[in-house]
Amino acid sequence: MRKIILAGNWKMHKTQAETLEFVAQFKPAIDDAPDDRGIVLCVPFTDLAILSKNLHGSAIQLGAQNVHWEETGAYTGEISAAMLNEVGVRYVVVGHSERRQYFGETNETVNFRLRAAQKAGLTPILCVGETKQQRDANETEAVIFQQLKEGLVGVDQSQLVIAYEPIWAIGTGDTCASDEANRVIGLIRGKLTNADVTIQYGGSVNPGNVDEIMAQPEIDGALVGGASLKPDSFARIVCFQ
Length: 241
Ligand SMILES: O=C[C@H](O)COP(=O)(O)O
Known about the structure:
alpha/beta; TIM Barrel; 8-stranded parallel beta barrel; glycolysis; EC 5.3.1.1; Triosephosphate isomerase; isomerase
């Protein structure tokens, strides 16, 4: 059975003080959220420990935004799966388009990170998606299928979330039409061996469009950037109808 998961990806936003302020407002705001859905906050590394303590006993689960494939070593600026585990992380975003675009992430390194995360018991959220140029050239499917083919080598699909994030829809307010997102997610599902993988949509999800997006049969949740930074806004998304 596919699980619904709403995940906030804070990217490089919020100090510890701002995180505590968020949680104090967010927790009561999701009191009435139906219990059929997972709620995840993927926050900067410096916020993980303090958030972990403050989430204790709540339905919110902790997520990170990157993980290295080695267990330890001279990898300045990276973080291991064990380090994330130690502070209570359960999910980790892997292969976000910003990592691919700005930090040289490839399908191969994405694959290494996915496997390392799983080996340590974390559930990776694998991001896939096409650029505007690729979409205009009718390459959407080819690009995504390649990301899946190379990214999922040796990956356990029973411990995996996928987020379809058309790059042109990220942070632009230019949401992918919900039926088109549904179509692409259906294609992604067709490439998987496990029919129960949660597949989210990401790209300018907000309180005004979440109900329509979540009404699509193939869409199992959302990976939310900008609109997850405000407690009332993310609470409304989590409580979609
Ligand atoms: O990881 C989240 C996505 O990049 C979406 O960001 P956004 O909701 O600000 O468009």
